[in-house]
Every structure is written in structure tokens, then in C-alpha cells.
Design a protein that fits this description.
The chain is an alpha+beta fold. It has five helices and seven strands, in the order αααβαββαββββ.
Length: about 220
């Protein structure tokens, strides 16, 4: 908002400019047009000068605004784990993507330094694998060998941190394309939520999968 002093100054400047151009308008119609344009331009300068005055005050949005703070919003459900998250460390995202690259390349031994000493995996078919890296990957290798060639296309991935639980997570949504030894192809939409410990190593996975429908034969 403009200060009172700035408004008074703008008003007097406008009256002065108007009187000056009115008295000189009788000299020439062309000059009047030029003066009118000049008056408009000078008025803009005067308005800009008033806006830049030291006592200029800009009204800000109330800190209690429900759209920005969320304090007035009542959720229909309470999250049993956490609803307080912030963006996490992008290094955790790289760790998870490196795991996907090792999976595509069928090189699970290369993932050992990315996993914690104890791992728990909840897979989309209901299987739960829990134990040391060696014991878990032994089962994972058997399954991976049945898939043949695998190629992953990542659709979305981001790291988050639960501020009240002090735990780091990476959420990924991707498409996995598979070709078995006989050349049969299929694909699936997969969503995974990984937890990483304080050392940045993966120790927990929740996986959800939906098979893509087979292509329509022409």
C-alpha cells in the first residue's frame, strides 16, 4: 500500500503537470498530442516513484492461511506410520537406481555394498525375504535367472525423509520389460518403496506390481 505522504506528492505532481499541458495546448494541436503522451509517460514515472518510496508497505498473506500452513485442514484418516515428510537426500535415489541397473544386468553380487547387513523384502506376489544379503540374494538370483533379458524404464523417482520417524525412503515407479529364453516378452508396472538406513544402505522394500496386458494380435 502507498504511504499517505507519497499519495499527496503524487496528487500535487499530477495537478501541476495537468495545468502546464493545458496552458500550452493552444499553441498547436500536434503539440497537444505530444504533450498528452508525455503526460501519460510522466504519470507512470510518478506512480513508480511513489511505489518505490521508503514507506511503501506490501501486504503479505497471513501465516495462518490454511492453504499454506495446513493447520486448519482436518484429514479423514490418521497415518499409522507418518504423515510428516520432507525431500530427502538425492544420493539415496542413486543407490536405488544402481540396484535397478544391477538387476537389469543380472549382476546382483555388485549390489552387496548398497544393502545393509540385514534385509527384508516384501515382494508383489506375497513373498517375504528376510535375512543376510547372501541368503536373500540367493533366492533373488534364482528368480532373476527365470526372467532372461530385463530392461527398466524409470517413470518417476524421488527421495523423502520422515521427520518424526527420522527415516529415509526412496519411492520409485517404473516399467520392467522382460524377454525369456524362448523370446516371450511381457512387461509390468512396478511401484517400490525402499528404506535406507543412516549409512545410506537399503534394508527394507515394499513392492507392488501390475502386469501389463499382452499386445493385441492383429
Amino acid at each position: 500500500m502507498l504511504g499517505l505522504h507519497s499519495l499527496v506528492e503524487a496528487f500535487h505532481l499530477r495537478r501541476y503537470l495537468h495545468s502546464f499541458f493545458y496552458l500550452n495546448s493552444s499553441k498547436s494541436k500536434t503539440k497537444t498530442i505530444v504533450m498528452s503522451k508525455s503526460f501519460f509517460i510522466l504519470s507512470l514515472f510518478a506512480f513508480a516513484a511513489c511505489n518505490s518510496a521508503p514507506d511503501t508497505k506490501v501486504e503479505s498473506m497471513s501465516s495462518g492461511d490454511s492453504a499454506s500452513s495446513g493447520t486448519d485442514i482436518v484429514m479423514p484418516y490418521n497415518a499409522t506410520y507418518s504423515s510428516k515428510f520432507e525431500m530427502g537426500d538425492v544420493k539415496n535415489t542413486k543407490t536405488v537406481l544402481d540396484l535397478y541397473k544391477d538387476w537389469d544386468n543380472n549382476n546382483l553380487d555388485n549390489s552387496k555394498d548398497k544393502f545393509a547387513d540385514s534385509i527384508t523384502l516384501y515382494l508383489s506376489d506375497g513373498t517375504k525375504l528376510s535375512g543376510s544379503f547372501d541368503s536373500v540374494t540367493a533366492s533373488a538370483k534364482q528368480y532373476r535367472n527365470t526372467l532372461g533379458t530385463v530392461s527398466t524404464t524409470v517413470n518417476a523417482v524421488f527421495p523423502v525423509k520422515s521427520t518424526d520417524k527420522n527415516e529415509n525412503w526412496v519411492v520409485a515407479w517404473f516399467t520392467e520389460y522382460r524377454t525369456d529364453a524362448k523370446g516371450k516378452k511381457d512387461s509390468a508396472q512396478i511401484q517400490e518403496t525402499w528404506r535406507l538406513n543412516k549409512d545410506g544402505k537399503a534394508d527394507l522394500l515394499y513392492q507392488y506390481e501390475q502386469k501389463n496386458p499382452p499386445p493385441v494380435k492383429k
